[in-house]
Amino acid sequence: MLAEKLAQLHGAGLATLLGSIICLLLVLDAGGSKYPWNNGRIIALPMIAFVLMICFITVQIVWSKTATVTPRIFVQRSIMVTFFAMFAGGATVMSTLYYLPISFQSVKGVSAVESGIRLLPTIIGQAAGSLTGGIGIQKV
Predict the structure, then answer these.
(1) Same domain, 59 and 122
(2) Which of 45, 69, 93 is the last residue of a domain?
(3) Are 93 and 137 found together in one domain?
(4) CB atoms inside a 10 Å sphere around CB 106
(5) pLDDT number for residue 42
(6) Where does a domain end: 69, 101, 121?
(7) Under 8 Å CB-to-CB from 63, ≥6 apart: which residues?
(8) What is the DSSP letter of 72?
(9) What does the pLDDT look like over 23-32, one tens digit per residue?
(10) What is the per-residue pLDDT across 106-128, written as a single tens digit (0 to 9) for each?
């Protein structure tokens, strides 16, 4: 059973996807802190990530029966709209959680602790909304 599941893992697809993600994470981690943004390593890594992502997409299309991510998912409008909505919602939440405390500190002039306390209603509201949404989805 385990051998069958491991055989279903698409090695080429997995290697290209992980390579692409690792390259992007290395850029985000080292760019501007360990190496300047104009360093050859930092410039080359996103290009390598892009090439590996193209290879991943090609592998997924060529071996679509055993693909990690089946290409037919990307032609369904409902899935693509859902993906975009989730991405936009997540970006909104993350930007709020990042910039609201900075706004409290720079505009209102409060301390970091006070800024965290003022952020609590937002976090509690988002957690309650997520729980309510999860319970509501189970009922449907």
Answers:
(1) no
(2) 69
(3) yes
(4) 10
(5) 94
(6) 69
(7) 10, 12, 13
(8) G
(9) 999 999 999 8
(10) 999 999 999 999 999 999 999 99
**Rounded to whole angstroms, how far apart are CA atoms 29 and 33?**
8
Low-confidence ranges of the chain (pLDDT < 70): 7
What is the pLDDT, as a whole number, of residue 59?
87
Amino acid identity at 105: Q
pLDDT value, residue 118: 94
Q: What share of the chain is helix, strand, coil (3-state, %, to 5)?
A: 85, 0, 15
Q: Which domain holds residue 119?
A: 76-140
Write down the pTM of the prediction: 0.61
Structure tokens at 87: 């991405």
Q: Which residues of 41-57 are buried (b: 16+ CB within 10 A; e: fewer)?
A: ebeebbebbeebbebbb
Residues 14 and 54 in one domain: yes
pLDDT of 28: 92
- Cβ burial, residue 8 (10 Å; 0-12/13-18/19+): exposed
9 and 26 share one domain: yes
| Structural domains in the chain (count) | 2
Same domain as 42, residue 21:
yes
